[in-house]
Amino acid sequence: MARFMPLDQAVRENLKDGDTAAFEGFTHLIPTAAAHEAIRQGFKDLTLIRMTPDLIYDQMVGMGMAKKLVFSYVGNPGVGLLRRVRDAVENGWPRSVEIEEHSHAAMANAYEAGAAGLPFAVFRGYRGAGLAEVNPNIKSITCPFTGEKLAAVPSVRPDVTFIHAQKADKKGNVLVEGIIGIQKEAVLAARRAVVTVEEVVDNFTGLHPNLCILPHWTITAIAVVPGGSHPSYTHGYYARDNASYLEWDEVSADRERFTAWMEENVIKAKPEDFAARVEKLRVAK
Amino acid sequence: MSDFTANEMMTIAASRALTNEDVCFVGIGAPSAACNVARLTHAPDITLIYESGTIGTAPDVLPLSIGDGELCDTALTTVSVPEMFRYWLQGGRITIGFLGAAQLDKFGNINTTVIGDYHKPKVRLPGGGGAPEIASSCGEVYITMAQSKRGLVEKIDFYTSFGHGEGGDHRQRLGITTKGPTLLITDLAVWKPDPVTKEFTVVSMHPGVTREMVQETCGWEVKFAEKVEETPPPTELELKTLRDLKARTEAAHKGK
Fold it and tell me: Coiled-coil stretches, from where to where (chain A) (predicted)?
């Protein structure tokens, strides 16, 4: 049953050192506020799962919180490389990070299998791909009906998934719209799910019947954090802050500049600061 | 005809390969520009798909990422990421996958994963994202990238996406039934695979380009077709469309 609570409490009650955690969002609706709260609370030895670990995982890896990354695209989308992840992988700074790398198709199938309660996912993929040779979790299986050889990967079952969404109703049902990515699967695959939302409305009556709604009984905790996905965006609320993604490429290029930026913008900041960050990016409703 | 850059010629030559009937899975960067120039000029009915789940999108500015809001706002429909990869890509609905590359070999194999050894990389690149299955599940694959000795190499460091492997019937031997790379558009030339060996062969050079220029910026010994055409220069409409698109994009990404 979803309980409404402040973000610091939601993170404290649902994330533990050593957990396998997914902070999902496929470019859209990235749960930045939740990730920053996790950074402030200083968790360690996390296994971080995400299809597209962009700025927030760059920050968490740079702060030394991750022992392992499971991912399918480790870039700053449209900008380039993730420089803190690179520094960890290439130089072990501030600690070495184990990586388990997949393709998007594999990760998407693995989340779906997790949501479906299956132990593994099967799909037509990885043919001729080098990842199959370096990742022991990529195996193959023969179709019992046709004999076709297909790829198999373990399902993703996070201890906890964090997502950001447009809104909740008063009961704690959550609405996600726009590029819905992998959010629904990531929530349903996890033991616990924490959602940050832009706002709470009375109810969802009268809306389109096929909207992507996560019932309140699939969610553990909800925190209201307007602007909580900045510099990503929330469809219908504010636009993607592309300039911040470009700026991150410079901030993250240098260890000292990174550390200073994190101190100023994350460690000393609060969830309430996000609202001001999206003020100029707000879209007309 | 006004002056144009090699990069503009590349984007425009790539855009010409696309038609109204195509359902195209668009990679970010150079492919995205080419696909949208096609849509804004000769192929207004082309279906552009980005891996974020946006089907039939028609952005006014080029997205910085594959999931910019502009893509969803202008799409016919937006589906979840598992649906995108399962029903639409794996289901065989997509005719063309349009990819870029950090490293490419003469058989159209692509590396966007690491420079150096996978476990001790010299440079850790972003990785494949959707590309490994785009390369095997789309009807055929077009590749576009600027030429350089670092980019076009004899041997890639990692097989992110399988092209024609070691050439010949290597795809069929791995049980891949799609055509794989059928076209490479660089800033200097248009290349097509040899029908038997599958090695990329120059079929057309852009205006002002010489064979020496193509060879000097390529890490393998270049094969030229028996008759090498000259790529028609950009038309005024193509050039204006591309430049307007780039100007709108730059303004938008700087936060206006």
Answer: none
